[in-house]
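ZP: hey, is the inosinic acid complex queued? I don't see it on the tracker
AM: it wasn't, my bad. submitting now with these inputs:
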Amino acid sequence: MSTIKVHDKYFKPYINAADVEKEIIRIAACLNNDYAGRKPLFIAILNGSFMFASDIFKHLTIDAEICFIKLASYKGTKSSGQVITAIGLDMDLFGRDVVVIEDIIDTGKTLTTFSQQLKHQQPHSLKVCALLHKPEATEYPITIDYLGFTVPNKFLLGYGLDYDGLGRNLPEIYQLVEE
Ligand code: IMP
Ligand code: MG
């Protein structure tokens, strides 16, 4: 692995593919244990989490369902608050054990807003599984129940994460080289 250029910026290797895989296996083992006999529903937030979600799912040995959703945010007409709509959420969550899968939690805004919406549907339980967390950037009180890596507040690329559309295909995670 060496430094790569994507668009106008340079990125250096940060977490190699083998270390990512080790975490996936560890997290999947926890999920297999915690959700044994419960048929959880995983909700993966696109686009960033597609690779993480698929790798986690491959290592599940329990009965589980998954759906992929996209969050669209817009400014509400009546309030100044941002409204987030989940596109593709066609499952009934009432009484279900739900696990939200996120690639990275930065400010925590996406997750906080989305979790509040999910709670309206009265799931039996609601947990969060994220590959990466930037605690220095997090402004909302959130609990991450299953976490891969705690990382500094620097821009990351690869393994689903993009910089302006590119880099999602990289099997390892890179960090922005700051000039
Ligand atoms: P939040 O609402 O600020 O927590 O934003 C989370 C979303 O921002 C993630 O799901 C990513 O799509 C994106 N994001 C945050 N940090 C990074 C990063 O370092 N690289 C790529 N995307 C990021
Ligand atoms: Mg995301």
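AM: back. The helical segments are 17-34, 50-58, 109-120.
ZP: great, adding it to the tracker
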